[in-house]
Each structure stands twice: as C-alpha cells, then as structure tokens.
Amino acid sequence: MAERLDFTGQVVVITGAGQGVGRAYARELAGRGAKVVINDLGGTTRGEGGDVGVAEAAAAEIRAGGGEAVADGNTVATPEGGAALIKTALDAFGKVDALICNAGILRDVTFANLEWPNLDASIAVNLLSAFYVGQPAFKAMREQGAGGRMLFTSSASGLYGQFGQTNYAAAKTGIWGLTRTLGLEGAKYDIKVNAVAPIATTRLSRGGDDAPASDPRSPANIAPLAAVLCHPSCPSTGEIFQVGIGFFGRVKMEVTDGYVLKPGETADDLFAHWEEVRSSPSREIGAGGASILPLLRERLGTDPFA
Fold first, then answer.
1. Which residue, 3, 55, 145, 256, has most beta carbons within 10 Å?
2. Residue among 132, 168, 189, 259 flagged as catalytic
3. Looking at the whole model, is its pTM more than 0.85?
C-alpha cells in the first residue's frame, strides 16, 4: 500500500475555499493534518457582493471534524487583499507552507459583445490574484527558508479555448506562463510551483450545487492532486495538469520540427510547405526560453545566437 501523504504541521492557504473545488481541497488537506486558511469573499459567480460567512462555515466544518482552520474574507482581486490574506495565515499559524490559488469568477460573453469592466474583473480574479496573493506568500516562504509549494488554477478553456470565454480563457492561459516562470525562479529556494486545470461540477461551472461525492464529476475527485502537488516530497515544478472525473494527466508544450526557409525562398515557398510547419513530428519543450534552442540548432544546422 502507498505511503500516506501526511501534512501534520503544514500550513496551507486556499483561496475560493468556501465552496466547490476549493472546499474539497480544504477538506482533503485538513484530513491529512494540515492547518488550513480558508479564504472566500462569498460573492456571486460573477464576483459581485460578499459574505464572509461562506468562509466561516467551511472553516467551522473542519474544526468540527477535529481539524484546524481559520476563515478569511479578503478579496484576492487587489494587492492589499492578497497581502491581508497572507497576514491572516502568519498571524494565525506563524508560517505558510503551501498556497493554492483557486478563486475564480465567470463573466461569459462573446468577444464582440465584451464590455471592458467584465474583462477587467475576470483578469483581476482569474489571473492577477495569483500575483497579489502569490507574491506575499512567495516572500514568506523564501524568508522561512524551508521551501514551499504553490498551486495555481488554469482551466480547459485557457489551455484549449472555449466559445464565449475570451476574457476567462485569456486569464487562465496567463496562469500557464506564470507557473512555468515562477517554477524557475522558485528553484533556488525549493519553492515548487504548478498549476491545475480542473473539470468538475460546481456552482461556478454549472450554476448549481456541487456534484455529490458519489458523482465522478465531484470536486472531491480533484482534491488528490492538491495533496500530491502541495506535499513537501513532490518534486514537480513548472508543470500543469488536466484533472477531472478520476483522470490525472500532465499537459505538455510541443513544437513541430517545422520547415526551414532556404535562402531565396519566399512566403510562397513557406505556404507550399505549410503542412510541415503545422504537422511535422513534434517534441516537448521544457521550461525557460532557452529550451527551444536545441531544436533551432538541429534544424538550422548552426547556433543562431553564437
């Protein structure tokens, strides 16, 4: 039998943890001994209004089960709110070992009908909050000197696209770049950074109640990944995972072998070889801008930056 992933003594901050996937994360990690800071503004799925009672109810549930949890109702859509959330964790438990940025909103509309306030709100909650909460958490982990784990939230929309979600998808795609880059920056301090693209039936995804634990689409089926990626023993960093309905898989970035335009050739020649550009054999590209260099050197027959 596999060794149990124990979180005793670990402090985990989770945004959007009053309901849905975030609440499933909190239950999972608290059940493994983590001290949990449950952040939730308690607003609508559009990010409007607020009720700290949502976070308090989730924290009370964990305490009633013998766990340790505190509630936080700060917004994650501002730098001040992000800093206040991490201060809540430090004041309550003295440290931050892991951060899960899970909070999100939806303001779906087609691109032609998108109004800028709906773009701004979506970017603020779905992307900028990872910066606003992530930076103070990163600094706290760095100062503690014991490493740390950060888990950001992308989506299938951000990875593959989704009609009517340009604002949401653009924000969630930004999480990909943040994850890969911060994974590189965090290596020096043993701060490992990953992202998840969850598929589950929740208030946010379907506008109703969370799917029950017996349903394969339940948020509870997402939670095991958080236990793995937030555990101190997990070696992964700079990676993104598609998760849902019991499936767990890493999403990879690949580039085709492409076509090398020869001296004297033009756009006409490029178009004639377009299927090679699009569909020739591909290979995985790792994190960091320089990771594309081996492919360029091989295909060009020289070092383009020598």
1. 55
2. 168
3. yes
